[in-house]
Model the fold of this input.
Amino acid sequence: MTVDQAGLDVGATAWLLVSAALVLLMAPGVAFFYGGMVRAANVLGTIMQSFMVIGIVSVLWVAVGFSLAFGQGNQFIGGFDLAGLPDLSATVPGIHLGGVPLLAFVVFQMMFAVITPALITGAGAERWRFGASVFFVAAWSLLVYAPIAHWLFSPQGWAAKLGALDFAGGAVVHASAGAAALALAARLGRRVGWGDPQMRPHNLPLVLIGTSLLWFGWFGFNGGSALTANGVATLAVVNTQVAAATALMSWAIAERIRFGKPTTLGAASGAIAGLVAITPAAGYVTPVGAIAIGAIAGVFCHLAVGLKAVFRVDDSLDVTAVHLGGGLVGCLCVGLFASRDANPAGADGLFSGGGYRQLGLQALAVCVVIAYSMLMTLLISSIANRIIGNRVTPREEAIGLDLSQHGESAYTFTPPAAPIAARGVEHVPVHAVSAPADRTRTQGR
Done:
């Protein structure tokens, strides 16, 4: 069946399509953010994993992923009624799209499904075999992301029925990805030479470019979750900006207090932490609440980075600290700062006179998401290890993923070419003529 044009809301549809494009921009944002943080021999390998996720998840989402997340099913998983999108005029169970075509909603949610496993790849940077990562992403997107999205994004899900709130994916995207990153990092083991000071970001400007793309794309991530260009979307965009800005400053202040200097990497990480934390709350809190969430997230995630040294888990690019930490902070802060004054469709948190009920629901939902994601990640990665082998060999790790996995190098340095000989003059090596030329200039003085 074709798309029904009757009752089409052009403005809402345009907003959702633009938001989908903004969220897609976050995938190369992640690629550059991670690519700048690894060593020079692993840049392309890291970027390639993020780009491959776009291809894998996009196809799987249309084939079956969207149906498992939003199709007619039970409170734990959707059915197969929307698999392959056979009916373009079909409705999404429990969700009123308000004049937005089904496909616009499908492609918007597709980008969420894409960005989530892309975040996980940072935990296995510099040692995760490319083939194993492809297998993992395909299985994880269907067995982990789709069910969790059903729990919270679909009105049929058990968490949504209880009343847990997740505006744009604090639990669905970030807590699940952060928990998976922790499990994957533990499963892969530490890199050879882990803890060596030389394991530092090789290109901080590239990290900042990635941060900028992520920040820009996040307006679609949160604002588009209102599904139309209305007051809630505007609130979400404003909250996204102030939370990220506040977290950037709070992380930098924490660095200044602890280490004497704020760093550019810290500022970038702080901004991402604020963006993560405001995601579940963007459409449910006031701007003052968003500032508080950003301040908490910046400090909390900064301190969480140091835990990997305590537990000796090599989460290469601090996915756990930023995304699990930020997602946890954001989900719980919904129970603290949510206000019906900001969004009547939301709830009143503890500081808005709503008591502890919403806080308890948020804690329950995010804890179940974390536990499920970690357990399934361990299972999927164990299967991948038996079939393909998760980790590259020590020799391949020493060479770097760029050459060992893709036969390419991000940076090629060649000596300057010798000057072309003038026409009619015999070509001689440069060093043969350089000395006389120097003597001539000396005699001329």
About this structure: The radius of gyration is 25 Å. Residues 421-445 have pLDDT under 50 and may be disordered. The longest helix spans residues 357-387. DSSP finds 16 helices and no strands in the chain.
